[in-house]
Structure prediction request, 138 residues.
Amino acid sequence: MINKKTITMAMLACMVVFLSAFMPKQQEAFKAKNLKVLPKNISKEDLDKVMDGFKASLGVRCNYCHSAMKDNPRRMDFASDENPKKEIARDMMKMTAKINKKYFQQQMKDGKGLIEISCTTCHNGKSEPVLKTAIAEK
Prediction:
């Protein structure tokens, strides 16, 4: 005859297996690929904030700089360098960082507030920055 301890242990084991089916799956650690200007250890939240800033500053969506996946055109291949605008974005990031370091770093040290340029400075919500000559011709 089966003793009570064996039945109790079997029931507990079944309960553990049953409840584990409803536990949330542990997410894999985020690891962005092909980052050449942004920090390689950037968190998903910080990367999303940067990308949201680009979208707002240029008035564009992800596919402006990113290419679609070859096997699933409805999804973005964020690591791909196929779209040449992605390299332009990298160059613009380097340019603004260089300008801010050269011309605005001292004002930040002197406590005069955070004055710097960003994508919005030139793009102002448009995918192509408005040139002075275009404004003068209006």
Remarks:
- DSSP finds five helices and two strands in the chain.
- The mean pLDDT is 85.
